[in-house]
């Protein structure tokens, strides 16, 4: 198996974890291969405008091995474009933007981590494509690049089974880049070795790319509101019960109109959407732990019939519960 060069772009004020997280996954894959008596597959390369140390947004300096201006794009297998505070300055670097356009057809895989998607969008590489980025940059991506099909509620857009999505892809904020890198390793080397890497890094093999960027159970604390705290704390323990708007309003001693208004203001979604998200997360946890059959999970989490659970899984994750178990359980 020929060595594959995995390159990651460096620039001033890049997010250090956007670089080191994914690159460590590939490095750990090499270690796991060596444990099996196999040669390393990946050659890791950091590229900047010029070779030398570059200060990240954390103040840590990373060393660019080579200048991207001198690299033959055809020698790269995969190029990752990270995000960070300095990404806006890079969007104004016409030479870098032109280089990305030029190398894109010559690279097997080109992807972004976090707000690095903005740089790919500036180069016009995401036009007509589905893309995601850090949740804080979703509005910027949608407003400034209307040709991009922004997918806010997912971790990454890589799909090895779809040619376009296997060649050019994006990922959400920071640690989602690690999920993306694990998905790339699994596509290259198979699930057992990717699992060994994940175990070595003390993390899940990978969350599905279509998973939400953050749990609905964190929304209340993130917004700091206490008006619905009692109800939202009660919902997860009563998923198999009637959680219709009318039942929730009665539980909270509110009118249905007031309940819907408070959910929109404090949670950012309708009561029914929130309940569906919490039920789906509970179902995912049960399926990942192989704690019950699909039918039992559907009953326990309030979906009732397995077909209801299947439709909801398909809507949010583009995968069936059974396929989810086989791939991620």
UniProtKB/TrEMBL annotation:
Protein keywords: DNA-binding, Transcription, Transcription regulation
Top-level taxon in the UniProt lineage: Bacteria
PROSITE patterns: HTH_ARAC_FAMILY_1, HTH_ARAC_FAMILY_2
HTH araC/xylS-type domain ranges (all copies): 229-327
Signal peptide, first to last residue: none
Residue ranges the record marks as coiled coil: none
CDD domains for the chain: GATase1_AraC_1 (cd03137)
PANTHER family for the chain: ARAC-FAMILY TRANSCRIPTIONAL REGULATOR, HTH-TYPE TRANSCRIPTIONAL REGULATOR RV1931C
Protein name in UniProt: GlxA family transcriptional regulator
